[in-house]
Amino acid sequence: MTHATADDKLQLGGEVFSSRLITGTGGAPSLDILEAALVASGTEMTTVAMRRLNPRTTGSVLDLLRKLGIRPLPNTAGCYTAGEAVLTARLAREALETDWVKVEVVADERTLLPDTVELVDAAERLVDDGFVVLAYTNDDPVVARRLEQVGCAAVMPLGSPIGSGLGIRNPHNIRLITEQATVPVVLDAGIGTASDAALAMELGCDAVMLASAVTRAQEPALMAAAMRSAVDGGRLAYRAGRIPMRHYAEASSPTDGLAEIPAF
Amino acid sequence: MTHATADDKLQLGGEVFSSRLITGTGGAPSLDILEAALVASGTEMTTVAMRRLNPRTTGSVLDLLRKLGIRPLPNTAGCYTAGEAVLTARLAREALETDWVKVEVVADERTLLPDTVELVDAAERLVDDGFVVLAYTNDDPVVARRLEQVGCAAVMPLGSPIGSGLGIRNPHNIRLITEQATVPVVLDAGIGTASDAALAMELGCDAVMLASAVTRAQEPALMAAAMRSAVDGGRLAYRAGRIPMRHYAEASSPTDGLAEIPAF
Amino acid sequence: MTHATADDKLQLGGEVFSSRLITGTGGAPSLDILEAALVASGTEMTTVAMRRLNPRTTGSVLDLLRKLGIRPLPNTAGCYTAGEAVLTARLAREALETDWVKVEVVADERTLLPDTVELVDAAERLVDDGFVVLAYTNDDPVVARRLEQVGCAAVMPLGSPIGSGLGIRNPHNIRLITEQATVPVVLDAGIGTASDAALAMELGCDAVMLASAVTRAQEPALMAAAMRSAVDGGRLAYRAGRIPMRHYAEASSPTDGLAEIPAF
Amino acid sequence: MTHATADDKLQLGGEVFSSRLITGTGGAPSLDILEAALVASGTEMTTVAMRRLNPRTTGSVLDLLRKLGIRPLPNTAGCYTAGEAVLTARLAREALETDWVKVEVVADERTLLPDTVELVDAAERLVDDGFVVLAYTNDDPVVARRLEQVGCAAVMPLGSPIGSGLGIRNPHNIRLITEQATVPVVLDAGIGTASDAALAMELGCDAVMLASAVTRAQEPALMAAAMRSAVDGGRLAYRAGRIPMRHYAEASSPTDGLAEIPAF
Q: What is the distance between the alpha carbons of residues C176 and C102, in angstroms, rounded to a whole number?
């Protein structure tokens, strides 16, 4: 695997990553379990919610990331307006000394779907303010393009609602997004299992972001390893060029000139 | 990965395998490319068609397998009756000095779908004759159970027609098969890309068998590596216990007690 | 609708039907509700289970069918061997004075999936015995062809397990069956809602058979009307020749020569 | 059918419709064929593109609608900004003497996907200007709610890109939209065949809008009849309350107390 992926790094926001799996920390039952999962995932960047305080895990999440050498990516989870998101991003910049931010502006608690009008506004303001902006968005190719136009470093379309585990509900839209994008596309939200992550990569995404699928799995570290393999597998398959689909069968070898026994 | 999979070997026909990927050789453009793909796949067992002679590749396929330390698994591809399949298996046993056989009895050239009546007959006769029988079958749980009852060492349901690349057309049936099986289930035929292989494992299959998806890919060795990762990922996800699907979102962290900045 | 369908009758077993919807009676909460549903469905043929006695409804089901002028089609539900099915069919022939039979031979109670080996055997014997045989089978094109070869008047592949409401799990197989069939294909089992029935017809089936989807719906008569419309709609769509699928959009009108206002 | 649907009219913009199928005219090969299709569809409202001039059909489209007693619904197809859409709507109001408008603001010619930022802006301005606004939008529940909030009389989410025939790519989103909507939801764009239209209604849509699926079918009038039946069927199924999906089978009758022959 090392060999096949060594020349295939992810370039994002002017930096280079070996791992194409970005993780979140929410939902982990304990710091120990989170640590094991992060290590198993091979991730190099992990989001941290600036507006949340989970007494069980958040307290030392940043310490843990520092220990593991994983870059923290502050997000604006829990923000409902562009104004809130911009403020949260600025607080994060001061606190974490990073100008990277994953901007989320959600519309309601039931679906946690992005409010794309507020999102585009927030993204534009943050780019103007010097941030490296990764934008969590819906799967609308038009919104994705707009986010790119206002200067986002990456677009992060959802597969399905956050935490739903429904996978990629509309692969067609994700393909339309990756076809047109000139910045990295990170499939974010909705991943339930390994094949979802592989599919995301096969559709041309440059990376996958997930949290609950790992942290809430029955065995988080095992699922983290699963996601790592699946992201690698999907990426390799994308690069390898899959066979076309056929309505009928095709024998894997010519059947003309059948001989009873091969010549060996 | 090594760590996570070390205690999770495939037991099949009284033998133990570290790899859960079984490959075929048909469709490879050259022996060199086949060799690179086999190595990248990490496979430990590869089928060989006893009734075919592909002048480009078959001649030295067995030499190649010997060199790579990969176990050859003769198949009965191209047989349309139980009688032909039994005869072919016996010729293979003499020629390859193995009593393992993948039994295929197909119904027609257009679909290459198994003729399950002939198949069950052939399997039963081969078991009686001392063979270790792996049976390529349709995705009917009733036929799978019957094959198990006549003594097959593994059942190999198709995902879709051979070479079609259509993936797993009926995951529900594959699940019904794996739920009931007491011998290994190997998803065989129809795999098109990495996420298909991951899904097979998530459905509870014990291994995946494929040929065209790798040998006919634009870059066979890369796709072989993809399949290896995807099979690992799918297996790990199966063991890890995925999150349930939800209709609505679920925040990855509690949002009660939101604080502006995490305590760090 | 009458106009469009008047010249498109179903020919099956030497008879002609205006309705392409065959219904069952099982699961109806009362005879009155069953009657309303049968009328709303427009069906001309309804199965009757010979081996069942549902004290609430079966007693007078045959009276009801007689009153409504609906042809009873005895089935062999509950039979697990060819022998049982043949015996049941013969009892039905005497009791109902019809040589039509829907032959079912199931493998187990959990899935109610057909045992195709027993099924083919039963079908062959019943054809030899002068029956007009409609065979409930899995969705394997090879078995469908075999049933046709032994003389069945119709093949009835399942969409998914009986009563599951899972719809058509493998449209690809149903298409393979309808492409090759020279006798009517009736999609049987698994229909959950109207769009499932429409899809069956679009795949080239000649009719749809269902019971639970109507009798267990919250409002059986309304669902019966739904199924009638959906079967009509699906059949018409099949005949009308649908548009191809495209990856991108296509404007519904030329946009060259745009004018501000149409000439009217 | 009349019976079952008589009490189930569509209320939209303060008016009542018996038909839940809204059609377009684009793509029809001739006025005669268009007429036959419109009649077969049973539609009561048909869109007219104000910015297009198709020499073959548009000239007399309005005459045809007048003759058939079908309400014309001007749309703003071909507009790329809110300003263009508002202008086009006003021209249409003068020309057609209707204050109803289907507002479309598309982002590009390749996908014809709506630009939702411009769309919301246009919708708001048109509502303020006294229009009854039906808004063609993407399948984002948040945008749908926003359109409702600015006063749209109906939201018209797409199933897939215009003219693509890809059906409903994301049923989950359509369901989220219909669950929350307090104005009618009209599935617009992407319908390919009858089962797509039935599914739209089963998901809780109040009506279906389509053009190419009928006008470009091999037999437009037959497909129009198909769509009419499918919309009816889907609506009835929605009202009837479908059976739940089950993983395993459920016999349609109790099998306890099996008797050899029913009591008749």
A: 22
Structural domains counted in chain B: 1
Taking CA atoms, what residue in D is nearest to A107? D142
Q: How far apart are CA A184 and CA A161, in angstroms?
A: 21
The three-state (H, E, C) secondary structure of chain B, written as one string: CHHHHCCCCEEECCEEECCCEEECCCCCCCHHHHHHHHHHHCCCEEEEECCCCCCCCHHHHHHHHHHHCCEEEEECCCCCCHHHHHHHHHHHHHHHCCCEEEECCECCCCCCCECHHHHHHHHHHHHHCCCEEEEEECCCHHHHHHHHHCCCCEEEECCCCCCCCCCCCCHHHHHHHHHHCCCCEEEECCCCCHHHHHHHHHCCCCEEEECHHHHCCCCHHHHHHHHHHHHHHHHHHHHHCCCCCCCCCCCCCCCCCCCCCCCC
Examine the residue annotation and report whether A67 is marked as an active-site residue of this protein: no
B72-94 confidence digits (pLDDT tens): 999 999 999 999 999 999 999 98
Whether the CB-CB separation of C162 and D251 falls below 8 Å is answered with yes
Using the Cβ of A14 and the Cβ atoms of chain B, whether some distance falls under 8 Å is answered with no
What residues of chain D lie within 8 A of the CB of A122, using their CB?
none
Nearest CA in chain A to D106: A142
The C-alpha of C6 sits at a distance from chain D's nearest C-alpha, in angstroms, of: 12
Is A64 among the domain residues? yes
- Give the active site residue among B93, B102, B125, B228: B102
The verdict on residue A262 lying in a domain is: no
Tokens, residue C136? 């409930």
Q: Which residues of C touch B169 (CB under 8 A)?
A: 169-170, 172-173
Task: Give the torsion sign (CA, D185, D186, D191, D196).
Answer: positive
Against chain B, the chains showing at least 3 CB pairs within 8 Å are A, C
Q: Inter-chain contact D198–C194, Cβ cutoff 8 Å?
A: yes
Question: How close is the nearest chain A Cα to the Cα of D127, in Å?
Answer: 19
Which chains lie within 8 Å of chain C at 3 or more CB pairs, if any?
B, D
Whether A81 has its CB under 8 Å from any CB of chain D: the answer is no
Which residue of the set C93, C102, C125, C235 is catalytic?
Answer: C102
Name residues whose C-beta falls within 8 Å of residue C107's C-beta, 6 or more positions apart in sequence. Answer: B142, B145, C80, C113, C114, C115
Domain of residue C181, CATH code: 3.20.20.70
- Per-residue pLDDT reduced to its tens digit, A12-61: 999 999 999 999 998 899 999 999 999 999 999 999 987 654 444 445 88
In a domain, B247, yes or no: no
Substitution target from A30, A52, A138, A223 for chain B, most B beta carbons within 10 A: A52
| Residues of chain B above pLDDT 70, percent | 89
pLDDT in tens, C81-129: 999 999 999 999 988 889 999 999 999 888 889 999 999 999 999 999 9
Binary contact (C143, B173; C-beta < 8 A):
no
Q: Scanning every residue of chain B, which has its alpha carbon at the shortest distance from the alpha carbon of C105?
A: B142
How many other β-carbons are positioned within 10 Å of the β-carbon of residue A52?
25
* C174: CB partners within 8 A, 6+ apart: C139, C157, C159, C168, C185, C187, C200, C203, C204, C205
Asked whether residue B251 is marked as a ligand-binding residue, the answer is no
Percent of chain A with pLDDT over 90: 78
Choose from D229, D245, D248, D255 for mutation: most chain C CBs within 10 A. Answer: D229
> Contacts of residue B140 in chain C, CB cutoff 8 Å?
113, 116, 138, 140
Quote the ipTM score.
0.88
Cα D205 from chain centroid?
A: 9
| Greatest pairwise CA separation for chain C in angstroms | 75
Domain that includes residue D190, residue range: 2-240
More confident residue, D15 or C53: D15
Q: Is residue D30 part of a domain?
A: yes
